[in-house]
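Explain this record to help learners:
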Amino acid sequence: QVQLVESGGGLVQAGGSLRLSCAVSGRIFTNYAMGWFRQAPGKERAFVGGISWRGGTTAYADSVKGRFTISRDNANNTVYLQMNSLKPQDTAVYYCAASATGVTYNYNYWGQGTQVTVSS
């Protein structure tokens, strides 16, 4: 059974930082790209960032470039999203996801999400 479990969300003031973690169990992770998505109230789920299996390729949404960093620890089947200089518009539920084919597409395994709230 495949499981993706996010943690690390919470309430933070604008300008602050949070680090999200996603622990992956099951048959995926090896050779899978991992990504983070977010969904704000009333909006569609949107790509935040992705990282290839070996970590050599990363991609980010323009809205988070320079502020967010995605990384992964393959020995421990965990992917991270370091979020700095947070803004109120970063408030959303953040989801971890896995893709067998691409850093920015074909994500078909999903976690349950973790809430991030940035106060002004």
